[in-house]
Amino acid sequence: MGRNPLADFLLVEVLHILIFFPTRHHFYRVVTLALMIHLAAGIYLTENVAELGGAAYAVGHRIALHFGFVAYVLCTEGSFPNHWRRIRDEVDAGADADGSGNLPSNFPFTKKFWWMFDIAHSVRMVGWVQEPRGCLPPPPPPSRRTFLWKTFLKLIANFVLRDLLTLIFAQNPVFDPRVHDPTDGPETYLAAIPLLRRTPYVLAFGLWLAVCFKILHNITALVCVGLGFSSPTLWPDVWGSWGDAFTLRKLWGRTWHQTMRPMLSGLGTLVANKILRFPRGTNLSSYTQLYFAFFMSAVFHFAGEFMYERRMVYRSFRFFPLQAAAITFEDFIIFIAKRLVPKRFNPGNPHESWAEAVVRVVGYCWVTLWFCLTLPGYIDGASLAGNYTADRGPIARFLFDRWKLWA
């Protein structure tokens, strides 16, 4: 388009907020959405966007997420804007007899502005009536000072852990293209490691990804709560309990970050129950939602990959649908096992039953083995493109130099 893609991206960010202004005039949203599509298409088609480096992936990924979230808010469940309610608005409704003053479309302009800003940045829907409480970690207590102090300590710990993890990533042929020959293909990275020996690298990659998410979450929470923009209760941890990750369904549904959960769930329900008209609660409905959610995850990640490196654009369409297929297989095995295993051996209290402990150990091994099989096809192309290239941090460098000296 002849303009800086970052400038166009900032315009998309502004339009993404403005499209949620709580007005009932549909023409306003149609025009805003048309401008978003025009700008986004120009960004995706601009060749020099790759010059942004690693930020190109974030730009492409975030734009796709914006469109998904717009579709979720405007097309699912009740009509926009009055269907979407903040819990604090419900609590502070006051003595309004018919509740009309509590409808977003009837808010005064200033309150409409902040409502618009809130929903545009509420991908997890925390603090809204639509919050997915069954899959999110418990909210922190409301004490602002305690929250800021604990979050600051977590931020320091996460920075230290990320620094230490550079010992594994830097100058390692599993992740770092700088120690490879320029003619090496992606199959010479993690895929070149024998299956069982991949385990520490797979676990390290998962931990590194979790720490990166936590750092961003901690910084954003400190800013928003510290400046008084939001309550500590609106900032539950970005990750669930790793103890729940003994099946793929629980890993993806509880432990992994649930940033896209409301959006994927809402859009999946729209497709399964309203478009395809499968009855709610049936296997057809639930598995349609499952496969649709992973397909959309592939689309969102593909958008970032397309912006960053054209050579790795199809890896998401291999990886994410495979997760849905594996969950289907897993559900089938669990279904059969529950009917074949005698009742006296069924797991009881998870804190007391030895059977439950055995099931969990087997489950952790299965989940780890699955990612040892499938993760190379997902990350090796990105490793080749330099997506995980890192230099050792100051702590890791100090420890590495000490080990070399002692050796």
From TrEMBL:
The lineage of its organism: Eukaryota, Fungi, Dikarya, Basidiomycota, Agaricomycotina. It is a multi-pass membrane protein. The chain crosses the membrane at residues 30-46, 52-75, 201-229, 290-308, 320-337, 357-379. It comes from Thelephora terrestris. It comes from the Eukaryota. The keyword Membrane applies. The keyword Cell wall biogenesis/degradation does not apply. This is Membrane bound O-acyl transferase family-domain-containing protein. Belongs to the wax synthase family. Residues 235-320 form the Wax synthase domain. One of its GO terms (molecular function) is O-acyltransferase activity. It is found in: Membrane. GO terms for biological process: lipid metabolic process. Keywords: Membrane, Transferase, Transmembrane, Transmembrane helix. It holds the Pfam family MBOAT_2. GO terms for cellular component: membrane.
